[in-house]
Amino acid sequence: MIPFNVPPCVGDEIEYVKQAIDSHKICGDGAFTKQCNAWMEERFGAQKVLLTTSGTTALDMAMLLCGLEPGDEVILPSYTFSSTATAAVLAGAKLVFVDIRPDTMNIDETKIEAAITDRTKVIIVMHYAGVACEMDTILDIAHRHNLMVVEDAAQGVMSTYKGKALGTIGDFGCYSFHETKNYSMGEGGALVINNPAYNERAEILREKGTNRAKFFRGQVDKYTWVDFGDSYLPSELNAAYLWAQLLHADEINDNRMATWNAYRAAFAPLAQAGKVELQTIPEDCVHNAHMFYLKCKDLEERTALIRYLKDNGILAVFHYIPLHSAPAGRKFGRFDGEDRYTTRESERLVRLPLYYGMTEEDRNRVIDCVFAFYAQ
Ligand SMILES: *Cc1c(COP(=O)(O)O)cnc(C)c1O
């Protein structure tokens, strides 16, 4: 069976995990966590990065830091993972879903302004497949209406928009290091803070509502409970695993990109023949080969393709059920405007196996199998 995903492992993870154990420091914010934060700050040009226990809790932190009040509204795409939305619900917001663009499956920036009301406080964008949303337009709308922008960059680590790392463009950026993402620590994530005014509040929120981070820097002589908070620090064991991956970040990226490019070249004739559609990478965007997907004619054809691949030992998957049509989406939000693409395009999309270390032989088997399906 060719799996859909294999968690990345470069080989030296175990050595760093052992170092964490030997240092007798396995709780949060030890040497490995600090190294990971500093690496991302440097590499992505971010003023502050904090590792978290997941991409979801990074989003929770971002939404809580936005300071929403009951009845406030948050604009987001319906075509996204539940975490994007549930973080806003946790912070007390009402969800306002808008349609996506069919070419990138990202939020349609031209539909945002019509969804703004006097209760709107935040726009959450999700960079699908590590391909950036149209951020210049979105930031312009946010500035004109005095809104905050949170980037769900869970899939966008190492991607850029006009040369800027995804996650560093809005007020906050959120990364995921789940095992299904390009870089992993099992479960984990990171919050990118782009406005230094939020640094201190973020540290307090992450450290159970205490000013412990300040205490460790010697800025206060005792630490105490100063505001509401939660626990968002990952263990050093997880951070040590991630550290090994960050040191090999370019190698992982190149390896995934080679598979992505090979898929792309192989499927070009199928796209030219009008059998499938391929994803669009806008000119300003450098992506990270997080995902390779095809779009079939319709839901029926997609179901048949996934079944055909499975019968031939290949696991391909689809997502997402649009949030506005899910039970919780109906409870916590509304769709603004017309659902022209969200439902229709999500029903046609199929993701092919793509992971660090995928062999050429397996990749070719996937390609041959898709061609065999369309030759029937
Ligand atoms: C993976 C993912 C998340 C959640 O990340 P976790 O680390 O699994 O909590 C959030 N948003 C998007 C778009 C994702 O792909």
UniProtKB/TrEMBL annotation:
It comes from the Bacteria. Keywords: Pyridoxal phosphate. SUPFAM superfamilies: PLP-dependent transferases. GO terms for biological process: polysaccharide biosynthetic process. CDD domains: AHBA_syn. The active site is at K181. GO terms for molecular function: dTDP-4-amino-4,6-dideoxygalactose transaminase activity; pyridoxal phosphate binding. The modification N6-(pyridoxal phosphate)lysine is found at K181. InterPro entries: DegT/StrS_aminotransferase (IPR000653), PyrdxlP-dep_Trfase (IPR015424), PyrdxlP-dep_Trfase_major (IPR015421), PyrdxlP-dep_Trfase_small (IPR015422), WecE-like (IPR012749). Belongs to the DegT/DnrJ/EryC1 family. This is dTDP-4-amino-4,6-dideoxy-D-glucose transaminase.
